[in-house]
Amino acid sequence: MSLDQYSYCPSGNGKKIKYSEYKEHFPEMQVIHRMIEGEQNVAALDRINANLKTMPSEPWLLAMKCELLLQLSELDALEETSAKFIRLQPDNALAKLYRSLVAIVRGNTEEGASLLLEAIAAATEVLPPMTATVALNLMEAMGQRGMILPALLHCEMLMDIGGGMEEVAARAYDSLISQGNTNTLARESLPSTIDASNSPFAERLSEANALVGAYRISSAKTKLESMQREFGLQAPVLQTLLYCQLMLSDMESAGITARKIAEIATLPEPQRIYYQALAYELAPKSTGVAVNEELCQYVIEDSEFEQKLTESKNLIPIAVDQLKNLLNAILIEEVPPKLAFVCVEPALREQFPELEASRSGSWFAYYGKQTDKPARLISLEPPTGSRRLMLEGIKKDLGIHSLNRELLEKLPSSYLTQVTASIMIRKQIDPERRDALNDATRQLVLDAFLDFPQECLAGKSPRSAAGDDSLKIRLAALLLHWQGSGTSGLMDNQFKDLHQQLQLKAPLLPASSDVFDLVGGASYFWTDLSDIDPNSLIQLMQSALSRNVTSVFDKLAEKSEQTQWPAEFGPSAEYTQLNLRTRTTTDPVTAEGLLKRIVELGKQLGVPIGNAVLERVEVLNMLGRSGESRQFLEQSLRENPNDPVLLQFVQMAMMRQEQAMRARGGAPAVAASSSSASGLWTPGQSEQPQSNAPSSSGGGSKLWIPGQD
Questions:
Q1: What is the DSSP string of 252-267?
Q2: I need a surface site. Which of 14, 37, 69, 165 has the fewest CB within 10 A?
């Protein structure tokens, strides 16, 4: 880009150079700019440094140096220069942005978020282009740390700001909501604040909202905290405070605030349940849904112990690489374990004796004797529940239950890890028995959940907490959080039955109301579909599909099949309905027919069909129809040459073929592989299945710079 007098001043003051106080330096700015554009980076840096010796406080020089250091990925130098920049120009938006970026890359998302917001508030005429770079890096860092809701709120802020950032924010938003490993409650925006116009704190709340509207989030947070101390638990104050805390990525405080909102007895019960469940997601430790697993060490003197490990029927060997990084980080030693095992116990043997099914639990890592260290066994030990019982039985069989137990580290995890049932089977499943096996596996998960003691329930299990009015909101919120996690394997009707079993009434809100504005992501589970209009139904279906809210797919598809769709909705409704059905069917023959129709409708609607094409290819191969699969794939590639998923598939296939030819001198056939999400391991299935479809998740880069891949 050229630099002329009508360009914005590099100093970050928001003025064009012609009207800037630094306009007399325009010729020098041009010289340095041309050097950077010509990729004469070292020469440009030398010239900037030479100028700084005579003009050490010029913000335009510091800003150009920061820009150059960023392009060179010189983080330490950028940190030093940006610190000087903001010290000399504490109100400069660009100085705040560079400091924000350094904080983000250093792992401090709270400081990064605060400085970004301050920079936006300090910007005058226009936002510096650097804003998009910082915002995207912040959202990526938040996503990597599981802070999906704060990242979504920042996306929404960028969309509201405009200035060309809408498209960037929209792409980031789509990426965030599709993160299936995140609770549904964290992938929807917050409900609106309750009207407080007639309250005694209305004027002060308006002042706080004005600060929020001006992006002065830290100042608004301080004012709201003062109001909370003065007026006690007031929903509008706490709701606004919750928003501020999330924008500042203070997850722990946000979780505590959400819990306080849930304690307000005047709020409708569905809202109280929603905020309590949100608190579980935001701050699991302080709200009582986290558990501490213990990493322990046993010194082994038994010379035959390694043989005992390898011969145990309750231990299955796994690759040591799966544990190496974790153990290296905690034990601080470079030598990897010699052996690693996952602990298992027989499961479902009465119902399915032919499958030799086992349920997995904890794991062991064995270090053989070294020159300066004895042989050791490292174990991950759950605090309670069925996994703990399994582990204690295996320790007794191995003869280590009586050895000295050294606690190395407490590792916090969610209750979800303790109630999930991972079943391994050693024989092929009869297709006619698969549904029965899935039902039995789900029952194991259900029993584990019902019988697992929870701190949030005063140490009671959900089963024993049933009927306790003092725990009703917390228990209902636990069910909502569990369903939102998507890890249970239960469908919505089964959660409704679970509510009845626990003496709870599942909320049901009329579709005519703005349910999302009342209870956020809980709307997928609590919207009454009996009176929903076609427009609202298809929006709910599409939204649930994009967020992979699997537990409601069946009920939405069933409602769609019962709906008389207007002509303008017909193909789109059928397309969405079939996609919902495809995600829940376990019959490959049914899935193949659904995918075939999805491809046809996708062409009719003009939407990308690549994923459906590749899924059908996989299913056809699974059914032994490889010839038809190959013919269908070749035809789809010819007819849809610009489909992004198919393009990436072809590129990956060519890359694999090229690599194989270099390695073996031949050209291997490209075959699609199948990945199961059922939680069942079957013989012949690879330990790490790969899909030919491109991954939707982002990379793990620490720094994103415009123009760089």
A1: HHHHHHHHHHHT-TTS
A2: 37
Taking the mean position of all CA atoms in its chain, how far away is CA 269? 28
Closest to 683 in 3D by CA, of 426, 376, 494: 426
User: Residue 199, Cα to own-chain centre: how many angstroms?
Assistant: 38
Give the span between the Cα atoms of 552 and 81, in whole angstroms: 52
Question: 116-128 in b/e burial notation, b at 16+ Cβ within 10 A?
Answer: bbbbbbbbeeebb
Helix, coil or strand: residue 543: helix
What number of other Cβ atoms are within 10 A of residue 218's Cβ?
18
Q: If we measure between CA atoms, which residue out of 372, 361, 396, 367 comes closest to residue 306?
A: 367
Residue type present at position 89: Q
DSSP string covering 173-207: HHHHHT-TTS-GGGGSPPPPPPP-TTSTTHHHHHH
- What is the 3-state composition of the chain as percent helix, strand, coil, each rounded to the nearest 5? 60, 10, 35
In the DSSP assignment, the letter for residue 340 is E
CA diameter of the chain: 87
Q: What does the alpha-carbon distance between residue 363 and residue 417 come to, in Å, rounded to a whole number? A: 13
Q: 3-class SS at 408?
A: strand
First-residue to last-residue Cα distance in the chain: 19
Q: Is 143 helix (H, G, I), strand (E, B) or coil?
A: helix
The Cα 9–Cα 12 span in angstroms is: 6
Spell out the domain ranges in the chain: 17-187, 290-424, 537-637
Res 665: pLDDT? 56
C-alpha 418/C-alpha 544 separation (Å) is 27
User: Between helices 217-231 and 202-213, what is the axis angle to 10°?
Assistant: 160
Any idea which architecture 17-187 has in CATH? Alpha Horseshoe (1.25)
The ranges of the chain with pLDDT < 70 are: 1, 125, 664-709
Tokens 């980076």 belong to residue: 41
User: Are 473 and 465 contacting, i.e. CB atoms less than 8 angstroms apart?
Assistant: no
Distance CA 145, CA 125 (A): 34
The pLDDT value given to residue 357: 85
* The pLDDT value given to residue 113: 96
Q: What angle do CA 695, 698, 704 make, to 5 degrees?
A: 150
What amino acid is encoded at 358 in this protein? S
Q: Are 248 and 114 in contact (CB under 8 A)?
A: yes
pLDDT in tens, 247-277: 999 999 999 999 999 999 999 999 999 999 9
- Decide: residue 664, CB within 10 A, 0-12 exposed, 13-18 middle, 19+ buried: exposed
Compute the Cα dihedral for 696, 700, 706, 709 and give only its sign.
negative
Supply the pLDDT for residue 1.
Answer: 63
The C-alpha atoms of residue 128 and residue 134 are separated, in whole angstroms, by 10
Nearby residues of 593 by Cβ (< 8 Å), 6 or more positions away:
none
Helices 553-562 and 570-584 cross at an angle (nearest 10°) of 140
Cα distances (angstroms) measured from residue 452 to each of 358, 386, 446, 448, 521: 20, 8, 10, 6, 25
Q: What tokens does 510 get?
A: 């009329």
Strand partners, 315: 343
Say how far apart CA 335 and CA 375 lie, in whole Å. Answer: 13
CA 383, CA 523: separation in Å to the nearest integer? Answer: 34
**Secondary structure (3-state) at 142:** helix
Q: Closest Cα to residue 449, out of 477, 421, 491, 468?
A: 421
Contact 357, 423 (CB under 8 A): yes
Task: Output the pLDDT for position 664.
Answer: 65
Helix (H) or strand (E) holding 372: none
